[in-house]
Amino acid sequence: MMVTMIAAAGENNALGKNNDLLWHLPDDFKRFKTLTTGHYIIMGRKTFESFPKPLPNRTHLIITRDKDYSTEHKNCIVVHSLAEAIKLAEKDKTPFIIGGGEIYKLGMDFSDKIELTRVHQSFEADTFFPKIDNNIWKLISEEYHPKDERHKYDFTYLTYERK
């Protein structure tokens, strides 16, 4: 099993503010969908609640400390730790950790790979992606995308693997 963290973060590692994204990058959404469809996606409760509805064709593992939290949605399982989520995701060769900030911090120890979209701008935020330690992670690919009529910011897809 290869656990992958997937995120989009600004130059200052900004992820979001008030439980919302800071930018709209259609190509990044498309890439996220392509990579995660058919897989287990692991997230915190606030990230789950930021979706209008569960993402199609994915099994959602929702981490919360609230023992009474539940959801009626199909393909959504509530767990109480990242370790428990990873254990449940063992059936999937490539489960994805999709946020938010707290879950990414915990996920650094569990992950084998990071798929990061680096948005080339700094943003005011209340949630941040953890710093990537180059002693632990090796950049294996990068793909730059300039801003255009559909994308307000330049961005680069960065893929890291654990050394």
Question: What features would you describe in this structure?
Answer:
The protein is an alpha/beta fold and 163 residues long. The protein has one domain: Dihydrofolate Reductase, subunit A (3-Layer(aba) Sandwich), CATH 3.40.430. Helices cover 18% and strands 35% of the residues. The protein contains four helices and eleven strands; from the N terminus they run βββαβαββαβαββββ. The strands form two sheets. The chain has an eight-stranded mixed sheet, with helices on both faces. A three-stranded antiparallel sheet has the order 3-2-9, with no helix packed on it. The mean pLDDT is 97.
Which descriptors would you attach to this protein?
18% helix; 163 residues; one-carbon metabolism; DHFR_dom; eight-stranded mixed β-sheet; globular; DHFR; alpha/beta; 4 helices; 11 strands; 35% strand; Dihydrofolate Reductase, subunit A; three-stranded antiparallel β-sheet
List the helices and strands and how they pair.
Blueprint: E1 4-10, E2 14-17, E3 20-21, H1 26-36, E4 40-44, H2 45-49, E5 59-63, E6 76-79, H3 82-88, E7 96-99, H4 101-107, E8 113-119, E9 127-128, E10 137-145, E11 155-162
Parallel strand pairs: 1-7, 1-8, 4-5, 4-7, 5-6
Antiparallel strand pairs: 2-3, 2-9, 8-11, 10-11
Helix-strand makeup class: alpha/beta
Q: Hey, roughly how much beta strand do the residues contain?
A: 25-35%
Elements, N to C (H/E): EEEHEHEEHEHEEEE
Shape: globular
CATH class: Alpha Beta
CATH topology: Dihydrofolate Reductase, subunit A
The total strand number stands at 11
Q: What count of domains describes the coordinates?
A: 1
Largest sheet data = 8 strands, mixed
Instruction: Just name the CATH architecture.
Output: 3-Layer(aba) Sandwich
Our measurement of the CA-to-CA distance between the termini, rounded to an integer number of angstroms, reads: 16 Å
Number of helices: 4
Instruction: Tell me the CATH superfamily.
Output: Dihydrofolate Reductase, subunit A
Radius of gyration: 15 Å
Helix percentage: 10-25%
Low-confidence stretches: none
Could you tell me the mean pLDDT?
97
Strand order of the largest sheet: 6-5-4-7-1-8-11-10
